[in-house]
Design goal:
Low-confidence stretches: 1-33
Number of helices: 9
Strand order of the largest sheet: 2-1-8
Number of strands: 8
Order of helices and strands: HHEHEHEEEEHEEHHHH
Helix content: 25-40%
CATH topology: Cyclic Phosphodiesterase, Chain: A
Mean pLDDT: 78
Distance between the termini: 22 Å
Oligomer: single chain
Structural class: alpha+beta
């Protein structure tokens, strides 16, 4: 199975509803869409898998892939008008992940990895709500303060500094996805879970894991990712 086939399910609901013609050419957007953002995903399958596994272990109700938001939000057919001004300016890029942070928004806790250099986004950055925002990858967004505390402490005590290639800009909807998407994801990425954790995990298993079990898995996956990045160029 190709990488393209492996990760297309994040857009299954969108395509099935007619929201996008395809992930590569999203010229038509259904008016009922909530909000559309343009994001970059991680090209390296190990980096991509590890970050997504951490997200879903930390919060089993996660419904989006780990990503870096570059543009948005757009609503409905506004994308067609705006996209003409930047569609030829974007390409694949590389990012250096060198920090982490956290903040609270209403009753939710957010923990993220960050990059201090967003120079590669100068021609394509458009986030009106966060014009000077930090380039970041959210690893946790939820109400479990204990999990947020643990994850932020683990990241803060790590030597974060790795480079990774990113995909071209890809549309991502704020519309809630089906949990079935992540059940499929875990099945596809079972080999990485086996390598890092030494056990098979299904989505229904994760719901019943204790906090300490989830923390132990996250620690193993994060350690595996850092070792992988220390051996690879990107």
């Amino acid at each position: 199975m190709s990488n393209q086939a492996e990760f297309n399910f994040y857009h299954i609901n969108d395509r099935a509803s007619g929201e996008f013609n395809s992930p590569e050419t999203p010229y038509y957007v259904h008016e009922e869409a909530k909000k559309i953002f343009y994001v970059m995903l991680f090209k390296d399958p190990v980096t991509r898998a590890c970050l997504n596994i951490i997200r879903v272990i930390a919060n089993p109700y996660t419904t989006q892939e780990a990503h870096i938001t570059i543009r948005g939000p757009y609503r409905g057919s506004d994308i067609l008008y705006h996209r003409r001004s930047w569609k030829d300016k974007h390409d694949e890029a590389a990012v250096v992940i060198d920090g982490c942070g956290r903040f609270n928004f209403r009753d939710e806790h957010v923990v993220y990895l960050s990059s201090s250099n967003r120079s590669f986004t100068e021609d394509i950055w458009w986030k009106p709500d966060y014009q000077d925002g930090v380039l970041h990858i959210t690893l946790y967004n939820g109400r479990d303060e204990k999990m947020a505390d643990y994850l932020h402490k683990m990241l803060s005590h790590s030597e974060i500094g790795f480079k990774s290639r990113l995909t071209k800009l890809t549309p991502m909807s704020s519309r809630d996805k089906s949990q079935q998407d992540f059940a499929v994801y875990l099945a596809i990425e079972g080999k990485y879970i086996q390598k890092t954790v030494g056990m098979d995990l299904r989505l229904e298993d994760i719901y019943h894991l204790s906090f300490h079990s989830r923390a132990r898995i996250i620690d193993r996956v994060w350690t595996y990712l850092l070792k992988h990045k220390s051996r690879s160029r990107l």
